[in-house]
Amino acid sequence: LQAYERRFPTCPLIPMFVASDTVNEYKSEDDSIHVIERRCKLDIDAPRLLKKIAGVDYVYFVQKNSLNRRERTLHIEAYNETFSNRVIINEHCCYTVHPDNEDWTCFEQSASLDIKSFFGFESTVEKIAMKQYTSNIKKGKEIIEYYLKQLEEEGITFVPRWTPPVACKLESSTSHPRRPVSPAINIPDSATKEGLNSKEILNTSSSPSEQTAGTPDDKLDADYIKRYLGDLTPMQESCLIRLRQWLQETHKGKIPKDEHILRFLRARDFNIDKAREILCQSLTWRKQHQVDYILDTWNPPQVLQDYYAGGWHHHDKDGRPLYVLRLGQMDTKGLVRALGEEALLRYVLSINEEGLRRCEENTKVFGRPISSWTCLVDLEGLNMRHLWRPGVKALLRIIEVVEANYPETLGRLLILRAPRVFPVLWTLVSPFIDDNTRKKFLIYAGNDYQGPGGLLDYIDKEIIPDFLGGECMCEVPEGGLVPKSLYRTAEELENEDIKLWTETIYQSASVFKGAPHEVLIQIVDASSVITWDFDVCKGDIVFNIFHSKRAPQPPKKDSLGAHSITSPGGNNVQLIDKVWQLGRDYSMVESPLICKEGESVQGSHVTRWPGFYILQWKFHSMPACAATNLPRVDDVLASLQVSSHKCKVMYYTEVIGSEDFRGSMTSLESSHSGFSQLSAATTSSSQSHSSSMISR
Prior knowledge:
alpha+beta; Alpha-D-Glucose-1,6-Bisphosphate, Chain A, domain 4; Helicase, Ruva Protein, domain 3; CATH 3.40.525.10; 4 domains; 6-stranded antiparallel sheet; 30% helix; disordered C terminus
């Protein structure tokens, strides 16, 4: 607080802060309450023309600081005095003591801006305000550290905590119990992280009764942190506690271990909001695809066991599990043609799950936290065959899924014997690899790995594989060409892909042009919540929700009229009678949602009325060319192919009572997962009674 007060009446580190005057001040008799109100003069960095039009050179703000030494809190409120009839700015900051560690200071900040009118320059004023606010936020840590250092130079390193007078002590001992006295507050260097503008360290507690099974009760225990998690700053430890407790309170399902939660925090530089978002997405993805059980329930096809040239091989010098991949000897085209993308992806997921298990084992063996593994990739034999487009597409998708769900698991990647064609492959895949991950790559051309700074710096000589000139026999398959007799047709692979991912609660359905797929949901109690989760496996569709007071006729299988095509990969049910009229027999309760191939959509709708709700997936037709009435060549060719009018979706629906809505929907509303294609963007569609999240 003493460091903060030195910002007044003016601060050289904030050029726009010209001066300030105290307009009101109050102190309680016992000195526990101190309220001071100041009028601050600011020189806003705005265009000269705008200042001339507004008729002002300076802007005045009123700031009120309320210090409660008894409760150990500081509240700061600020609002604009200048142009208050045109622009309303409110800001609130709060400093409190962390409930789990009295040496930590929690900081929360929020602000609002409402521009009613400003001489026609509303958008300009908004940009200026956001620029100034962001600039001040980023300087917050720098300023407080400047004045803390100034205090230290003056010999002030300890400030006694406030204690009540004797009379107050007797009274408070019976009616106002407070925390035991501890040393003065120290603000850790990392407690205010640059770039985070709100809730740097939230005020949250950790109850021993809510701890995850299989880990120590005291999550702040130093021995536990050192043994299983590694060195953590107070801010990092606080982020872990808060995120874990949030999961315990809101997530219904298996809670990941602290080591895994920490990976997501590290992947987002301990920005708790961003880490929580990607962790929730990953937990939803794991549940959807039953990844937690993949090692116990899925056996890799024999083709993979014979021709996938990769496997685990001892550990590196740091104790990390070592995975060896002879990519140059592997027939990626043959594996994709024989197995399809999904089987190959599932095998890579099983490798990552095995890696997590081995990290836990090595943590116990070496007596120190090991949360990642080392991967050794031998590119001897890499050629243009490996640049086959479907194979590269499969590789990119695997990278995308692994990056999203196994962050910070790759400790080091050693790429050996990189040939001339490698830069081409690297150009294709590097944009999809996280910057932090790329920093862990070490690339060696030819036999450079045998020299200084090479393999011996990271792997003991005794376990270097024989094919790299070492003495250790490596049991990794040698790969080779997959026999063409094992290749499968596109239709066989497509059906196999669906089979792989539909061994869960999800159902598959086919959608044709003129034949949508519809699901009936009967609602008895109003304000129930309909939830959905679906993946668009093929084609583009339009998702609709309708309401009807009367039940539709029993569902009938559609024969697809003149096409007479069956649906090998899923069912097709139509409920809305062709004689029904929209607006008379049934009504649309949400705006149509267009979903592209590869998108994964989760959302919810709070029902207003009882009755019958119909979820509909309909074929999405591209709009006709507006410039001419003549059909385009592409449209004519597409109309001749029935398969071009076929879409596939995998879906799951559930009805939740309104009283259970908030807790059950917390993770669903904020989650999305890439299913069939690379995640390149995220968009959302939300109305007053629904939310849908999409991932491309």
